[in-house]
Amino acid sequence: MASKRRLLIVAVVVLFAAVAALAIAADLVVEDGKGWDLDVDYDEWVDGNEFFVGNRLALFKYIKGNHSVVEATAAGFAACSAANSLATWASGDDRVPLSAPGQRWFFSGVGKDCVQGMRFNFTVLPVVKLSPSPSSSLPPPPSSSSAPRSSGGSGLAPVLGIAFNWVTN
Prior knowledge:
With 169 residues, the chain is of the alpha/beta class. 28% of the residues lie in helices and 21% in strands.
């Protein structure tokens, strides 16, 4: 009976991990389908999203020739200048992989699009991978009266770690 219970718990943990992995490797559509356009508040869209390594900005949908997508340095972004751009796309259906953590800057390089607000920047966050640790190296759990309280987060990492250690012991 105990082995069936462990198997069920492992299955639930694996399901949660799979769902989390799918959420991390997401395609993000700029402005949730409104496309790459002058009438969009990109700062608001950025504030409503998190960007992780492994995501892909399947974002830039526009009529070819009306706009472009320029990935710039901080200085190029501030000046709306494509002179020293990192990359440029102009297909009308552009996809940009987020392959490394760090700051990214994008704007439209056509006409006055950038100075009219067709630009945004964000930080790509690293994906934290859980690695199993030998159960002998785990410190004893703190007593309930002295245990620190978490102030946020999903709590998935501690659950996965505890489940892994419990199943492998």
